[in-house]
Amino acid sequence: METETIGSRIRAARKEMGYSQEELAALLYMKKTTICKYEKDLHDIPSSVIVQLARILHTSPNYLLLGEGKANRWKDDMICIIEEINSPIMRQLAMEQMRSIVKYADKSISI
After folding, report:
1. What is the CATH number of the domain that holds 20?
2. In the structure, what pLDDT confidence band is assigned to residue 76 with cuts at 50, 70 and 90?
């Protein structure tokens, strides 16, 4: 899938997350037609909406705007997850589990 424009990157990220245009529009409190126009590059997107889109689509504003940083999207996902944990104890436990996973993954076969 071509991802040369902001709209095409939004569409690709939306599909990767499994959202329909209607679902994404509902999360952003806007109309489906607005999402459609964004994806077809027919409408300028305010920077505040770019930030909201990046959060919802678990990517970075930099990726949506410039197409950079897609390879490290998993890191952004992990940061978003950790930031959503309010309890310091639970956050620490999550970090320890992630470190264990990384340690184990380094010893396993790469996919």
Report:
1. 1.10.260.40
2. low
